[in-house]
Every structure is written in C-alpha cells, then in structure tokens.
Amino acid sequence: MDFQVIGKVFPRKDGIAKVCGQEVYPSDVVIPNMLYGVTLRSPYPHAEILSIDTSEAEAMGAIVVTPDDVPDVIYNERTVSIPEKTYRDRRVLPRKARHVGEAIVAVAAESEELAFRAMRAIKVEYKVLPPVLDMDKAVEPDAPALYEEIYLGDNKIEVKNNVACDRVIVVGDPEAGFAKADHIVEREYELPRVYHNQMETKTAVCRPEPNGGITVWATTQTIHNVRQLLGHIFNIPLSKVNVKKLAIGGSFGSSIQMNSIIPICVALALKAKRPVKMVSSREDDIYDHTKFPARIKLKVGVKKDGTIVAADMRVLVDIGAHQINAYPLLGCMAGWYASLYKWRDFRYEGKAIYTNKVPACAMQGYGNPQVNFAVESHMDIIAEECGFDPVEFRLKNYIGIGDEFWGQGPTVRSIIKSCGVEEMLRVGSEMIGWSNRRPPQEKTGRYRRGIGMARGFHTSGTGGPKPGEVIDYSSATIKINEDGTVDVMTPVMDLGGGTGEAAVKITAEVLKVPYERVELSPVDTKTTGYDVCTHATRGVYCGCGAVYHVALQVKEKLLEYAGRILEENPGNLDLAYDEAKDATIIHVKGFPQKHITIGEVAKLAQIYSWGTIAATDSLRQKNCPPCFVAHFIEVEVDTLTGIVRIPRAILLSDTGTPINPDMVKGQLIGSLSRGMGYALYEETEYDLQTGKLKCNGFITDNKIPTTCEMPYIDDIQVYFAHTYEPTGPFGAKGIGEAALNSVASAIANAIYNAIGIRFYKTPITPERILEALEGGEKNGN
Questions:
Q1: Residue at which a domain ends, from 258, 279, 300
Q2: Which domain holds residue 673?
Q3: How many CB atoms lie within 10 A of CB 199?
Q4: Taking the complete model, does pTM exceed 0.90, yes or no?
Q5: Reduced to 3 states, what is the DSSP secondary structure of residue 506?
Q6: Which residues, other chains included, contact 566 with Cβ-Cβ below 8 Å and sequence gap of 6+?
Q7: Average pLDDT, stretch 253-278?
Q8: Where do the DSSP E strands lie in 387-536?
Q9: Strands, DSSP E only, in 621-708?
Q10: pLDDT at 737
Q11: Pairing of strands 308-320, 294-302
C-alpha cells in the first residue's frame, strides 16, 4: 500500500528537545516554595515497627510522615486488572517492613541536605522477625508468614504457607495425550531476578491546590490510574486530582504500577501544605522493583512424525514482599505457553510465592521471556533427541493464521488474522546459513562457534472479542486548527519507542496533512479521556488505534463541513495533499479543480459559527494480535575463559505495517542488548542471611551489556515480514516486548551448538561455562 506518511522516516517530534537537554522529565520539575523529600528505609528484611521518634528531625524544621500520618488504606498500585481479580496487600507506609529497602518513614525539608540530615536523626525501634528468603522454604508449614490475610477485590482471604495466589488450567486430557506420545521430554529451567536498569529512576512532585486538590508530576506509564489511586487513598474527588503527562526516561515495565514514592510524596505535601519533590536514588530504585524470577518444569510428548500431542508446564514464581501483579502474571504465562505451539492436550499450573525480597513486577515481556526460554530450549532438545531439524519442527507445530490465540491468558481468546512466522523462519534460515550449521561434536579448539535460533511473540494489547480480566481501552482527541494544522491529544505514554510519533503519523495519514503540521499537545488527566496504561505492547495497536478511530471521525466532520461550502455530497469528496498549493485540499472526486483547503474549511466553520472540527472518543480493540519475532544468533565461546561473544545476529519481526520502521529496527537492536544481559550477565543475587542485595544497591557489580559486548552494527541484520493486520491502524501491530522475548533462548541454543552443553539456568556466565566444561558435563547448571 502506498502511504504518504506511514512507514516513512521523519525527525522525531521530541528529538530536538531531547538531544538539546530541553525535554522535561519529572526530575526537571521545580515548583516555587518547594520542599525536598526523602525516605527512611528498613535495614531488615522482616521487622515490626515498634516506635518511631521524630522529635529531632522535627526540631530541625523537617516535615515527617509516619504510618500514623497516612490513610490506613490497603491497595494494589497496579490497577490494570478488573477489581475482583486484583489482590491488595500494600499500604503507603507499612507498620511491618517486609523487605530490605522498604520505605517506612518520609521526611521533607527546605533542601535535600537538610532532609537527609533529618532522616538520619529519626530513631526507629524494630522487632526483628525471622525472614524467609528462599522460595522453597517459604512454603514449608513452619515458615515465617509474611501475611496472615490479604484482600482479593473487597474480600479478605487467608494466606497459607506464603502462597500469594495460584492458577491451574487444563485443556483436553493431557494424560491421554502423553499415552499417545512416542517420545517424552521433561526438563526444569530457572530464570533469575533482574533489575530493570531503566535510565530514569522514580520521581514524584506534588503540589497541594487551594481547592483541596493536588497536581502531580510523576514517573509513570499510566497517568489516569495514578490519578484514580491517589483519589481513592486520600479520599480526594477525581475532579480535584490532576496528573501531568511528561516524558519518561525508559521504564521497561517498572512504572506500570503507581510507584511507591508517589503516594508518599502526596502525603508529605498534604501535611506540609507545600509542594514536595522526591527523586529516588539508584540504590532506592533497585530495592523497589525487579523482574519476576521463575522456575519452570516442562514436559512435552511428541509422535514419531514430529507432531506434539501433549504438554505439562509447572511454574513457581518468587514475587517478593508484595503482590503487584502476580495473579495476572500467572494467567499471562499460561497464555504465552498455550499460544506458542499446538500442544493439543495440555496442563498448566502456576504458583506465586511471597518472600522477604524486593517486590517483583512487570518487566519487558511480563513472564514471556521466562516461558519462552523454557519452551524454545525444549523445542531444540526434542528436535535433537528425535532427529528433527529445529526449524522444521517448529514450523510443523506453531500456532498461526486461523488458530485460536490466548491473548494474555485464558480469558482473552481470539483468532489469528496475520502471521509472518513461516516467512521469518525461512528467510532467517537462509540469512544465517542454517543448512551449513555443524553439530557441536565436530567443533574443536579454543574458540567454538555455534548458531542457534528461537521464535516468540507478544500480544498487541490485551483485548478480545469479550473483555477479559484486564481493562483495555484508550481515548484520544483530535482538532483541526484554523490554519490547517492539527493538534493530537492522547494520554498514552510514549516510553521511548515512538508511540507518540505513530499517533502523529496515523493522524497525518488519515487527514492527508504533512507530518510537520501535526503536533502532540501537552496533556494531563483533566484534559484527556482514560487510557489504561502503556504496557502489553499496546501503544500502537490500542493507543494509536484510538487515534485512528478519532481521526476518521474528524475526517467525516471535515468532509461534511466542506460539503456545505462546496455544495456537494460529502460522500463525493476526498482529501489529498496538493504540492503546488503546499496544502491539504478537499476536492470533488474526479474533478480536483473544485476544491478547498482544510484550513479554509476550519476558518469558515469558525466564521459561520458551525463549531470546531474536532472529535473525542474512546476505543476498545476487540483483538490483541500477536506480533511475532524470530532470532537467529551466532555465538563464539572462548573455552579458556568461558566468555561468550556474539559476532552475528539476524533479527526478524512481524509487526504488520511498520508505522515507524526506524524505531522498529531500534527496538529490535536494543532488545538484543537486553536479551544478551538476561542470557549472559544479569542477576540480582541476595545475601540469604541479611536479605540485602549482594550488589549493594548498584554500588558494586551489576553487569549489563554495553556497546563493547554488542555485535558490530554491520553484523546485525533486521528483516520485516510482509504482513498486514486487518484489525490494526493501517495494518499495524505492536513490536515492543516481542522484540526481547526469544533472544535469551536463541543465545542458549547457540551456546549448545557451539560446545554441546545445555544450560537450563541463566545467566550463562563464564564461571558456569567453565565449571560445565571442566566437569565434562552434558548439562549446564
């Protein structure tokens, strides 16, 4: 399809501001008469707070907030799920610390220096309790309990053996399916806790308003959910709560929920009756959130002809001290598992366990990379043991066009309408030279190269024909100005991947307006309709789907007004960009000489008092089409040092119509880096005696990939499958999280091809490689 703007590369709307340091992030916000806030955090993983002496701090002129100063409201900071499926166990400031680094007191003062001095003057008396820092020990009958009771919706429920929640799903008859299998493969995989490492730590600025309301500038992926939660916690009408939309310096899922410092900052501001600003240190941030670690047991039965007939997956997840989104996570992990391959008869059992560690939350794939590592490693194992080619085995069993797809769990099901899996696997095989790949036993010498592949997907949002457990809709407003320029107002957060650019391009394409004449307007929760959150790779498909939906309404209104002026039926009119006039015109179909510019229509509508050409509406997408990816990666393993190098990578994606092709490419390459970290380097390890992170809050070693570890840019090839999603704006789907999901599994499969050792646990560090090589093992640990 020939587009005017879609798929073309233009300078980013926020590009100049960002490269010149003029983009405003929450940490840049300064309010007159502002105080600076800090938090006192627990040094213990599990302790009751017996008393808090704030007298010395208050004598310094500081404002101090303790658990006694905040509403005793139990909430969940993630409000993406419907209420009856939302578990609640958190307070603004707790009376019991459940992990090292949990905020228990907050202080605000005229300067950060004074705030820190006042914080250190606070005396807290603790009753130290035995912690539970191991997931297996947490479920033992005599293990210390983190909670006796929590809430599910409005109902109190008992917590037994620190099991926060569980889910069991059975499709068909798995036992009968396994009985039909000619070969059964069973393995266990373990994925670690990983810190998000987003560039921006968390910031909150709150200004109390004269009418009793508050205005908030905060690091968030969802301005409207923050607004609603603050209104609920502090009993403020939503009409008096305003959350501003600002740029966000990366998130990777760490701000899907309302970040913990936001209500703390509000509590300080309300008590002080002055604006307060809080900025998390990196040490605070690493003790605030982490990726979900998982242990996955997978059993798969297959027939001699390569047909999968049965599968069984058991998942244990250590969620840490608070349940942010564990129940929907378990549902999503079921969906990631159910929708990769045609298992026929299968079972899924997921269980989330409380421990006295940093709370886990969504991070780049929301359980998908964990499931993908297990499944895609397993597919290679089956292929080798049964004599199948790994690519052909996948092609025989993958879920594609016409198959049922579980969006983000069993309650969201739809039919796949676009799929580039076969194209990507065929093209990727050719690009990497798959047919020339040699088995590991033929490789000798210090440096051994291997080629591995894996495929994956993510959903474009969480919608389905029927609404499921997750709320999913977006709103937008579009207005044509009297000079023919266009304003777009959307509450959708752009996390850096180009969602805002997509909104501009989609509007420009519908209205045939040049890209440079469409602008994103500054917005907040008072000026926009609701958007659930930028998560689930929904930005383009859902958030910009709403923009597309509203742009069509604006176009209809524009043509109706033009029809009045030109005395023509609106159905006989069309839009086009006239290069000679350097303007967008509305003309009679087949008779372009009879036309008028859109600026003239807007101005005449003003003069005639017809009204502004604008529309506001919401849209719930009734699908969440999978955006598929495939990774073909070559590794080089130094058998003397255990260091893994990646000399070449082929990154293939099916994103439907690429609205921003340059940014899709950037997403794929950036996700290669993050996937390398997950596979080879990253893990936030704990001291099981003190409950503290061994990296000491980012002060010491917490290795992540840099440009030094990445392949040269000329050795990374990107390919877009030729697909069109009929339910997406101009045929578009998402790419965001999909780009990461199969990176680690492809690297692990490549390492096996290089040295003949299978690793079931990440990160696959040099130490683990050397240990396996020196032991002559065939299984890595």
A1: 279
A2: 398-458+625-781
A3: 12
A4: yes
A5: helix
A6: 573, 586, 588, 594, 595, 596
A7: 97
A8: 404-406, 413-415, 447-459, 474-480, 486-489, 518-520
A9: 626-638, 644-654
A10: 96
A11: antiparallel
